[in-house]
Amino acid sequence: MAQRIKVVLDTSVLISALKSKDLSKSPAWKIIKALQEGEIVNFVSNEIIEEMQTQVLGIGLETGLTRRALRILTIVLKNSITVRPRKKLSHDIDFIKKLKDPNDAKFFDVAYAKKVDYIISENTKHILQMRDETTKTYRFDGRNVKILGAGEFVREVLR
Length: 159
Prior knowledge:
This protein is α/β, with parallel strands linked by helices and 159 residues long. The protein is built from 7 helices and 6 strands; from the N terminus they run βααβααβααβββα.
C-alpha cells in the first residue's frame, strides 16, 4: 500500500462539507470521502475534536442538517489519529500575533508534532494567511507544511 498523505483538517473544512448544496461537487466532501477511503490520514488533538464536535453539531442543529453533521463527524473521528502535541505554539507570542487567533494554534501544534504534509483549511482570516503565497507553505523550526484550501487540495493532490 502506498504511503498515505498526512493532513490536519481544520474545522472549517467539515463545516464547508456540512453546508454543501451539491455533495458531488464539494471539495470539502471529496476530502471527507478520501479520508474515509484511506487516501489520506488526518491527525487531531482532543482540543480539535472538541471544537469539531461543538461547531459541526451546533451548525447541524441550527440548519436542520443534524444527520449530515453526525455522518461527517463519525467519518472524521473514526478515520483520524489522536495525538497529544508537546510543543504548543500558543505559547509563542510572535506566532500568535501573526496567526491572529490563538484558538487556531492547535492545528499547527498537531501539524508540527506529526510532521504532516498539509493543513487543509477554508479559514482565510487566520490559517491560510499564514502561508507563503508563492510556495503555499509555512515554515516552522525547519519544518515545512503546505497550507491549502479544500479546492486547492482536491485539484493539486487528490485529482
